[in-house]
Amino acid sequence: MLKQQTDVLIIGAGPSGCVAASYLHNNNIKVKVVEKSKFPRFVIGESLIPRVMDHFEEAGLLESLKAMNFEKKFGARFIRGEEICEFDFSEKFGEGWDWTWQVPRADFDNTLAKEVVNKGIDLEFESEVLDVVFNEDGSSITTVKNKEGDINEIHARFIIDSSGYGRVLPRILKLDAPSSIPENSSLFSHVKDVNRPEGREGVLISFDILETKVWLWVIPFSNGNTSIGVVGPTSFINSLGGSNAEALKEVINRSDFYRDRFKDVDFLFEPHKIENYSCSVTKLCGPGFTLTGNSSEFLDPVFSSGVCFATESGMLSAKLFLKELQGEKVDWDKEYTEYMKYGVNVFATYVKEWYTGNLQTLFFHRPENSDVKKKICAVLAGYVWDKENSFVKKHAHVIKNMAYMIEMGKTMDQESYDN
Ligand code: FAD
């Protein structure tokens, strides 16, 4: 058995793990990353939001991503029958990036991981964490099985668990908790987008609302393929008949906007189905570890917040551990848990109000209120810690109250018309 020593062990080489690893390495901290899969590997989560660009830039990973010519994403379009609501990130409230990418994650994550390796970071693919034991001082011994089947030990001062749905530490430490988001499921695949229209329409990322709680995503990639997926209550997804391919085709057929474009195209792989994906944990950190990205909490795909929270929490974990190593006191509950929970709670409100229909009422209300739109746009761009934005600060009430006023206005208009 090989015994290795490192300052920080990072479990998982997704965006969360790569951002944390790169930042720590750039600050001369000894890091080891263990990744269960062989890359490139498929993972869902293809629509990014601008806040991630801050993280990739600060981690020194942005230039390698730019070189890949992924499809640029400047906003998002929401469709409801004949109604359209488009957000343009350049018109958002406040500071921050006004573009990002829509990406096939196999290529995107592979680019990140390759850059991490190029920097000289010790990243071991096809190595699975089997167990972790913590010592009283927070240091730990992790048991890993490598691709030859050998069992080795990694001794670390700190662990950043970025294992996504592997949820390594939540499983071992029994930290799983139910999500506050209603139970939703999804079916998705990629197609060769042979009927893609020329110009902007062909590459526009869109969310087509088929029913208040059921929506279709269309995410065109620069390689000519497009990701299509449906999200809805688990009972709805499971009520669709036939194979996953038949079920997804049936849903695409319900879309007036996209039916013709995807009528005769074949899926590049049998659609995947993920049921009840929302998850949470009882705590985000403890002595000697943090949980980041999907290993901690995942809400819902609707506003593409997954990768953003993954990189935000990966980056913050790295920064706080560095601060501690430099001899400064870190209040993990305040500086990590409270901070992350604030942003997650803002997004959780938007997700919940999407499925109640209140947010859709705001999106499709005409005439548009440009101040409201700018502020919601900043939230959709991932700037959910900006308390100058009243749609961040008052998230708990503002959407519900505005939707109520809009609906009341409609009722009063109708009554005065009837009388
Ligand atoms: P991951 O990217 O999942 O990486 C975790 C890594 O850990 C994996 O490579 C895995 O192999 C490795 N690992 C697991 N177990 C072990 C182990 N025991 N030992 C070693 N390594 C291990 N997010 C968005 O931002 N935009 C979207 O459009 C979007 N759409 C989504 C649609 C659906 C239907 C779902 C379910 C999710 C979606 N997400 C989306 C969320 C997104 O998939 C995740 O939030 C994101 O991938 C999390 O990144 P991560 O780095 O935490 O984990």
Protein traits:
24% strand; binds flavin-adenine dinucleotide; D-Amino Acid Oxidase, Chain A, domain 2; eight-stranded mixed β-sheet; globular; 19 strands; 419 residues; NAD(P)/FAD-dependent oxidoreductase; FAD/NAD(P)-binding domain; FAD/NAD-bd_sf; single chain
Descriptive report:
This protein is of the alpha/beta class. The protein folds into 3 domains: 220 residues, FAD/NAD(P)-binding domain (3-Layer(bba) Sandwich), CATH 3.50.50.60; 92 residues, D-Amino Acid Oxidase, Chain A, domain 2; 60 residues, no CATH class. Helix content is 37%, strand content 24%. Strands 1, 2, 7, 8, 9, 10, 18 and 19 form an 8-stranded mixed sheet that branches. A 7-stranded mixed sheet has the order 5-4-13-14-15-12-16, with helices on both faces. The protein has a two-stranded antiparallel sheet with strand order 3-6. It is globular and about 80 Å long. Bound molecules: flavin-adenine dinucleotide.
